[in-house]
Amino acid sequence: MSKNILVLPGDGIGQEIVAEAVKVLACLRDDYGLDIDMDEALVGGTAYDATGTPLPQVTVDMAKEADAILLGAVGGTQWESLDISVRPERGLLGLRKELGLFANLRPALLYPQLADASTLNPEVVSGLDMMIVRELTGGIYFGEPRGVRELENGEKQGYNTLVYKESEVDRIVRVAMDIAMKRGKRVCSVDKANVLEATEMWREVAIRVGSEYPEVELSHMYVDNASMQLVRAPKQFDVMVTTNMFGDILSDCAAMLTGSIGMLPSASLNEKGQGMYEPIHGSAPDIAGQNVANPLATILSVAMMLRYSLDEPEMADRIEKAVEVTLDAGLRTADIMSDGMKQVGTEEMGDAIVGALRNQ
Ligand code: NAD
């Protein structure tokens, strides 16, 4: 039975980069027999303009029915003055919540061809290929009680609560283990077990789940050391699994190791394996509509979709190989341009990837 992909271009460069990713999916369907159909729906500011809400019910319904979702980006200056309840970003948060997307997968991958784009020495980062698995629906960002209260002496006190149930830790560590089985078979669980009881329990659960995966080498690291190791020697990591807040910070740090925001894909999965796939960057209003945005993060998000939701790893390999061939040929969008390379626009880059796919 063919798999259904819901395409949500969103706002700004989302429209342009998703168009290129759709070309790639269409090529895999027409030339290599990938059994998919694609539907499109509105989300974000464009959805607000058309319907008065950034997340129309029809989009939620289609998302729930889909096998996987491809999202461009949401947001833009023209919607910044709207009430927070209808801002474009609400569309994205609403989708995460409606679909129960608890596992956020963020690879940090640096193609050797782009090693110069990093602010770190090329030998430290060239060939970096790690995956950060961040818990996305629990922890301190959602824990109750939370708020700002007034103490007896009139001083204000802000407070948040770090909470995790064993079942929440169990399922995210399991995701990390399963991913490690398809990669280098090493998982580093990041916590602050020396100070925070909640993460002491996190570590206990990680060890318990880890014992079910004898082939995977499980290690533990305190978050302060992990942040240091990420910049000192990032290639020591294969899969890193951590809490919502630690993952938020560490995954941005890891992304910047690669120096090229236009290259990094991401996935958010729920318990059914359904996933939403999107580049890590935003809608880039400063370059929207100019045909200069880099579509590769979105195209690589399609590869993740094929690997993690559609069980088509060979198709994912095809896309990743096409990206390598195209970079080897010297084609670069403006954000990753360097001396001696050929600068191309969004569409030209998308066409080059499709060309490389056809030549396989
Ligand atoms: P951004 O990621 O959109 O842009 C940051 C910088 O990176 C800009 O200079 C931009 O031109 C550049 N850039 C981003 N993607 C690029 C690409 N594919 N190719 C080339 N250059 C690229 O972040 P921002 O400027 O902080 O936010 C802009 C809007 O995007 C805001 O409304 C924000 O809320 C929204 N946003 C959305 C998401 C999302 O949809 N997941 C994520 C982050 C930000």
Task: Describe it.
The protein has 360 residues and is of the alpha/beta class. It is built from twelve helices and 14 strands. Helix 10 packs antiparallel against helix 11. The radius of gyration is 21 Å and the shape is globular. The two termini are 26 Å apart. The model has no long low-confidence stretch (mean pLDDT 95). The protein binds nicotinamide-adenine-dinucleotide. Residues 13, 17, 73-76, 89, 92, 261-262, 278, 281-287, 293-294, 297, 335 line the site of nicotinamide-adenine-dinucleotide.
Comma- or semicolon-separated keywords:
single chain; 360 residues; alpha/beta; Isopropylmalate Dehydrogenase; 2 domains; ten-stranded mixed β-sheet; two-stranded antiparallel sheet; 14 strands; 20% strand; binds nicotinamide-adenine-dinucleotide
SSE layout:
Elements: E1 3-10, H1 13-32, E2 36-40, H2 45-51, H3 57-65, E3 68-73, H4 88-99, E4 103-109, H5 122-125, E5 129-135, E6 147-150, E7 156-159, H6 166-181, E8 186-191, H7 197-210, E9 217-222, H8 223-232, E10 239-242, H9 244-258, E11 265-269, E12 275-279, H10 296-308, H11 313-328, E13 331-332, E14 342-343, H12 346-358
Parallel strand pairs: 1-2, 1-3, 3-12, 5-10, 8-9, 8-10, 13-14
Antiparallel strand pairs: 4-5, 4-11, 6-7, 11-12
Helix pairs in contact: 1-10, 1-12, 6-7, 8-9, 10-11, 11-12
Nicotinamide-adenine-dinucleotide binds near residues 282 and 283.
